Amino acid sequence: MSADAAACPPWWVPAADAQSLGGGAPLAVRAFGEDLVLWRASDGAPQCFVDRCPHRGARLSLGRVHGDVLECPYHGWRFAAAGRDTDTAVRAAPAGRCVAIPALAGFTPPATHCAIAWPALERHGLLWVAPPGTPGHAPPAPEPLAELAPRRVLCGPFDAATSAPRVVENFLDTAHFGLVHDGWLGSRSELTVPDYRVEPDALGRPGVARYRAWQPRASTAAEGGAWVDYRYQVLGPYSALLVKKAAAATAPREAYVLWACPLDEETTRVWFTLATDDTTRSDAELQAFQATIFGQDAPIIESQRPRRLPLAPAATGGELHNAADRLSAAYRRWLLEQQVTFGTC
Predict the structure, then answer these.
(1) Which residues pair with 231 in a beta bridge?
(2) Fewer CB within 10 Å, N side or C side of the chain?
(3) What is the 3-class SS of 20-37, one letter each residue?
(4) 3-class state of residue 189 by DSSP
(5) pTM: predicted TM-score of the whole model, two decimal places
(6) Which residue numbers in the chain have pLDDT < 50?
């Protein structure tokens, strides 16, 4: 994909978990087909540049962090974090501005000497990035998580050789439970999808307020089968929320937030935030359960063709739908309305 910001979609996505960016070393990541580098300024604020020095094209992720600048490994050019500058002759340099060239002592680089900076921030235990000029879209705010159980466990990352919209649609799909997750989230003896309604939230994003499913093992803590009430909510093109509550009064509250990062049009990295009030299972046990579920999904979603999610109606070459697909069909319509093209066809 071109480095031209105009070619990038205007959405924030997670590029790494926050703990992976420690020790002061820069971190190579990828999003929307771009190679990027993450690093932290002296105050811990995450920074993101395109992983290419504008001088001779070396990877900045091979360089070093010196306080509030990132140094290129090839010729030592130094690029400033947002709003910081070690050169007293230049105040509040824009993010990515070159502030020093070791081969030219005393030289003040012009404004045209700069790395391409992307906005970056830390939220939900993840580091989020967005293409330059992203207007008005931010990572899903804390509010969707504020109402959930207090314990938070980050699961992943998991990689899948398919598009991010395919991953999200699978997360929203319930008709596959008894086949793909037989004995876990569903059973071959209970394949019927009950009637349900899709309703938009205040932002127009599709969701389902209540969906009831029989699950042999709905969670790590489940001792046996139970009827489970689901609530689904699309949060963005590449993120969605699932809230689960088993009928038993003693069953723990659980919710999963899927965060998908489109590495490329047809490659995706995924994290899940698990919110639960279960105190009986370790983080490792909860993460292992989610790894099992995603491991069951992965070969199926990677087998789908095309890998990019078709948004056209069946009459013009798209895929067929039925009543059990109401939520995924609504998700596709919403992607069309939002003009989301990365990972769709």
Answers:
(1) 243
(2) N
(3) HCCCCCCEEEEECCEEEE
(4) coil
(5) 0.92
(6) 1-7, 86-91, 142
